[in-house]
């Protein structure tokens, strides 16, 4: 009996030491994180900068016409983004809003966001575009102040423009904590 308990004790101690021993192969977990910093500028400042560039480069007609066409594209894009924000801020129903948005979005964006789906949701909104920001990648942030079904809310729309149409959107409801 003593031999049996001694064997069990030795096996138990051996198991404990082998289980607690360090792993010589060593597994290493490396976690990395990358953060992309995107600088957004108010669109009004961008338009003013473009105008001053046009007046400074008045040496030849070809440069002027090129700058004017660039300025017109910027102006058209700004108008598109502003119309997009107004369509999101002012509507009598979801179907009404979606009909307005169809004119401003490309087919892929319409499909991806379900804009062509009829709905019975009762939501109405009145509001305005309070500011528009742009980064260097033709991405826009549109801040809306709205009253939706009697509740004041702020909405932040993130939009990408391709081919003078809205190609991608993200809708964010902004909540003020304090």
Automatic annotation (TrEMBL):
Residues 1-21 form the signal peptide. Keywords: Signal. The keyword S-adenosyl-L-methionine does not apply. InterPro entries: EF0163-like. It comes from the Bacteria. Residues 43-70 are annotated as: Disordered. The keyword Hydrolase does not apply. Residues 50-70 have a biased composition (Basic and acidic residues). This is Lipoprotein. It comes from Enterococcus faecalis (Streptococcus faecalis).
């Amino acid at each position: 009996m003593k031999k049996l308990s001694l064997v069990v004790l030795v096996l138990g101690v051996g198991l404990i030491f082998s289980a607690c021993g360090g792993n010589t192969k060593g597994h290493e977990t490396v976690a990395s994180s990358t953060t992309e910093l995107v600088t957004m500028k108010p669109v009004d400042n961008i338009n003013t900068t473009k105008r001053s560039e046009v007046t400074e480069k008045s040496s030849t007609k070809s440069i002027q016409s090129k700058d004017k066409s660039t300025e017109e594209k910027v102006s058209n894009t700004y108008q598109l983004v502003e119309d997009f924000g107004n369509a999101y801020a002012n509507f009598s129903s979801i179907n009404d809003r979606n009909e307005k948005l169809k004119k401003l979005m490309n087919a892929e964006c319409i499909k991806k966001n379900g804009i062509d789906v009829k709905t019975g949701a009762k939501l109405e909104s009145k509001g305005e575009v309070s500011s528009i920001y742009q980064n260097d990648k033709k991405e826009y942030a549109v801040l809306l102040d709205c009253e939706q079904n009697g509740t004041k809310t702020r909405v932040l729309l993130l939009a990408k423009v391709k081919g003078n149409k809205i190609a991608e959107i993200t809708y964010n409801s902004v909540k003020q904590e304090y």
